[in-house]
């Protein structure tokens, strides 16, 4: 393909440049990464905390025992001070790597040898691949690049505050783009894969030893998914959450992130839950995250959360109380300066014990040591060989484009309008999002290794391409409708590249509407009316939009949701439009109609309330009208399915009488999942084998989603929920078998009103596309 030649061409020059730079003599001294225990330093040579033969617990104790109270307090903030007398450099805890090593935190600067990193698609698009091993590979690459940036002296730390695994509860949320979507199981699997990849574990897990490639952080605990809506801002939002919703919707992604992913950090959120700010919630931080989930790492506050307790939320009586409340609840690190400014006074006022400070320091220094930052020059240690040449490598670039291609969701393709012919056509590309590569990045971005615009990608296929922006901006307050209509009349094909950008949805900015902004819809309809053939609509958005009108308009033949596809993502769009890639992404969120905005964003309830007409949220609970369903997505192929086998009926299983079975009038008999324990749950697990045949004439990547529902659902039960998913490559005409292991304790269970995860006895139905399979639990 033409474009790849162009890519290689650019890479050639890029690396020639890097080579010249790294051979110059300017960069060497300033590009040393910060580390402690320099073997060349006579002061630290003999200190026990520098002795790599000793266990980390002993080294950490030795270090802490040498610190004065002032020195200790200075370590409890994101920009931790140097301790020169002990040879310890300053450390920055705040780095970001949501979808690539980012310059969004203060610790990374792209002003040296490395001026860009691989820009993966924004997470919501990555989630649409439903491909767990792919998620892992992305994070692994990000971890490698993080080391490359660090080793080159352009990072002040190796602790990353990613992933964001808050559930995407409402389509208006400005940061929904950063998340893996609305399903708690998918979000949990994404969290697990991301953390394992970034930290250096294996895909299957269990390989993570003491050493960390990088440290990941599960954020923002908990029930945080509102920025700024109708005068309510995240810093003082009190989320009213039922125990039931907390247990089976808001918490599961975090539980998986810590328990299965083994994340070494959790960040507490700005907001309160049921009146208690998350960062002072002892039950949440200490009982749940640290004890129940067994967090081996540190708990960070979101930035300035501690100061807010006194300054904004009026929760604490004084700054010292705010500091003491947070540390006493289990928070270890203040993103901000409040603990540094008021910590000593809190100790003097006996609100904060030095023992709590030492506990925080243990959690913090343990992670710095596990990252190898107290072992002398890290470039001579494990991960030390990763150099600048691995950042933006061709392999990493190709992976990013591949993710973008596989995430994009084909929403409409009437009369097989797509793919478009590559030859002998004239093409008009219209829309503000075609001409700006920055839109493709989404938030928490960085300079990408390559930065094609969608227009450039289309031009690489069709020389005879005319372009018009159509709107003044994505907000589209001014539209040149007459001009674009004239263009549309003259060409064979029209592709409109519309949607949203960070001026419409981002951190600190929720949407009020679900429809396309300003005059976009009017422009799309006018162009579609004027064009010779049905037009193609490409949407760059994070969150869902109400495009009912485009969906129903026969003059709009194809619709592709492209998320924010990352630096190389424009290539992916063109690859799909011209048939060099068969789309297979599926929506990770429900697309609601505009009428959904009549329910307040502040209403946290997942479950519907029939009396008031409140419809509930996400595919698990919402029965109202939808523009597109969770899991929806077309392909250039058609697929058929068969359920080949379910191992469950091959054996008989009964739950031992020693496990209490609860009998209540308003539900089937049930067990509390934690009473069942791992062994029984494992014994109940079974395998479903699904056959999938590709009837198209292109190979395709296809995700199989298996849902489960109760045969007799009651109030509060999900309509259905995802039980398993896997993504497979299927050649044209080929049939493949997909095996999914399902654990009823995890996948058939849901929370009762007390917030217990329970498994009901009785008949369930497995749903695979339009197939149903009846199944009994426990047998
Ligand atoms: C890059 O920026 C950082 C932070 O502003 C600065 O300390 C450093 O000296 C800069 N490096 C170069 C090579 O300009
Ligand atoms: C495109 O046009 C050229 C020149 O008219 C012709 O030789 C070629 O066969 C055409 N290609 C297709 C795919 O129609
Ligand atoms: C990075 O440096 C290369 C080589 O000089 C240059 O071509 C590229 O534009 C730079 N990228 C950014 C994002 O500054
Ligand atoms: C592309 O179009 C330009 C003019 O728009 C023309 O000069 C050039 O020859 C064309 N290239 C090809 C390969 O058709
Ligand atoms: C977008 O347009 C609306 C009017 O349609 C206006 O109220 C709003 O301020 C604009 N937003 C931006 C970011 O320009
Ligand atoms: C399972 O139990 C049923 C009913 O008790 C019995 O008919 C069946 O043979 C058993 N199956 C196996 C594989 O043991």
Automatic annotation (TrEMBL):
- Any one Gene Ontology BP term: xylan catabolic process
Which GO cellular component terms are attached?
extracellular region; plant-type cell wall
Which positions carry the signal peptide feature in this UniProt record? 1-27
GO terms (molecular function) for this protein are: alpha-L-arabinofuranosidase activity; xylan 1,4-beta-xylosidase activity
Listed A to Z, the keywords are: Glycosidase, Hydrolase, Signal
User: Does the keyword Signal belong to this entry?
Assistant: yes
Chain ranges of the Fibronectin type III-like domain: 702-772
State the source organism's domain of life. Answer: Eukaryota
Keyword Disulfide bond present in the record's keywords: the answer is no
A Pfam family that the UniProt record links to this protein:
Glyco_hydro_3
**Similarity remark:** Belongs to the glycosyl hydrolase 3 family.
Question: How is this protein named in the record?
Answer: Probable beta-D-xylosidase 7 isoform X1
Supply the source organism for this entry: Ziziphus jujuba (Chinese jujube)
């Amino acid at each position: 393909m033409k474009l790849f030649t162009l890519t290689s061409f650019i890479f050639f020059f890029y690396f020639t440049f890097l080579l010249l730079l790294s051979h110059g003599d300017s960069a060497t001294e300033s590009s040393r990464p910060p580390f402690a225990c320099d073997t060349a330093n006579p002061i630290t040579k003999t200190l026990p905390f520098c002795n790599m033969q000793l266990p980390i617990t002993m080294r950490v104790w030795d270090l802490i025992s040498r610190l004065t109270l002032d020195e200790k307090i200075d370590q409890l903030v994101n920009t931790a001070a140097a301790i020169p007398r002990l040879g310890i450099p300053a450390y920055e805890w705040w780095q970001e790597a949501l979808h690539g090593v980012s310059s969004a935190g203060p610790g990374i600067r792209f002003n040296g040898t490395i001026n860009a990193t691989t820009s993966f698609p924004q997470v919501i698009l990555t989630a649409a691949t439903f491909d767990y091993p792919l998620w892992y590979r992305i994070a692994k690459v990000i971890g490698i690049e993080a080391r490359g940036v660090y080793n080159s002296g352009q990072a002040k730390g190796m602790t990353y505050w990613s992933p964001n695994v808050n559930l995407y509860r409402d389509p208006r949320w400005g940061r929904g783009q950063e998340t893996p979507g609305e399903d708690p199981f998918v979000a949990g699997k994404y969290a697990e894969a991301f953390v394992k990849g970034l930290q250096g574990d294996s895909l299957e897990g269990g390989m993570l030893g003491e050493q960390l490639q990088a440290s990941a952080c599960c954020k923002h605990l908990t029930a945080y998914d509102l920025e700024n809506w109708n005068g309510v801002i995240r810093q003082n939002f009190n989320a009213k959450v039922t125990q039931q919703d907390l247990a089976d919707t808001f918490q599961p992604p975090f539980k998986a992130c810590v328990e299965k992913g083994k994340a070494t950090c959790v960040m507490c959120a700005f907001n309160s839950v049921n009146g208690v700010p998350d960062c002072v919630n002892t039950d949440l931080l200490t009982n749940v995250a640290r004890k129940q989930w067994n967090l081996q790492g540190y708990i960070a506050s979101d930035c300035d959360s501690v100061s807010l307790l006194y300054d904004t939320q009026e929760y604490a009586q004084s700054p010292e109380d705010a500091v003491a409340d947070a540390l006493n609840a289990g928070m270890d690190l203040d993103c901000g300066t409040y603990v540094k400014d008021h910590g000593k006074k809190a100790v003097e006022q006996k609100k904060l014990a030095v023992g709590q400070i030492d506990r925080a320091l243990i959690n913090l220094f343990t992670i710095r040591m596990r990252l190898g930052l107290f072992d002398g020059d890290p470039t001579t240690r494990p991960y030390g060989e990763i150099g600048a040449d691995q950042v933006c490598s061709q392999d990493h670039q190709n992976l990013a484009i591949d993710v973008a291609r596989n995430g994009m969701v084909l929403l409409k393709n009437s009369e097989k309008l797509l793919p478009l012919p590559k030859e002998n056509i004239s093409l008009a590309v219209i829309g503000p999002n075609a001409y700006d590569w920055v839109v493709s990045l989404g938030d928490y971005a960085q300079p990408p290794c390559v930065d094609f615009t969608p227009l450039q990608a289309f031009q690489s296929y069709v020389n005879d391409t005319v372009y018009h922006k159509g709107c003044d901006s994505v907000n589209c307050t001014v539209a040149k409708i007459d001009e674009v209509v004239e263009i549309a009349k003259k060409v064979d094909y029209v592709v409109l590249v519309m949607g949203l950008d960070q001026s419409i949805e981002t951190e600190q900015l929720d949407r009020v509407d679900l429809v396309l902004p300003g005059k976009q819809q009017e422009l799309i309809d006018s162009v579609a009316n004027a064009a010779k053939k049905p037009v193609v609509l490409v949407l760059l958005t994070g969150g869902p939009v109400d495009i009912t009108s485009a969906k129903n308009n026969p003059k709009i033949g194809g619709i592709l949701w492209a998320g924010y596809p990352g630096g190389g993502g424009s290539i992916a769009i063109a690859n799909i439009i011209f048939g060099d890639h068969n789309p297979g992404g599926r929506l990770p969120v429900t697309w609601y109609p505009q009428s959904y905005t009549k329910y307040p964003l502040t209403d946290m309830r997942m479950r519907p309330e029939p009396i008031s007409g409140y419809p509930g949220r996400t595919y698990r609970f919402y029965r109202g009208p939808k523009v597109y369903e969770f899991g929806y997505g077309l392909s250039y192929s058609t697929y058929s399915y068969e359920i080949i086998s379910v191992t469950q009926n091959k054996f008989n299983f009964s739950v031992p009488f020693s496990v209490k079975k609860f009998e209540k009038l308003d539900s089937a008999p049930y067990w509390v999942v934690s009473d069942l324990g791992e062994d029984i749950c494992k014994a109940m697990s079974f395998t479903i084998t699904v056959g999938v045949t590709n009837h198209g004439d292109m190979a395709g990547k296809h995700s199989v989603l298996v849902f489960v529902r109760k045969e007799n659902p009651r109030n509060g039960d999900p309509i259905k929920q995802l039980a398993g998913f896997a993504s497979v490559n299927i050649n044209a005409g080929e049939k493949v078998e997909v095996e999914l292991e399902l654990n009823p304790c995890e996948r058939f269970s849901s929370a009762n009103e007390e917030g217990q995860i329970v498994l009901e006895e009785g008949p369930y139905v497995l749903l695979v596309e339009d197939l149903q399979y009846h199944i009994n639990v426990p047998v």
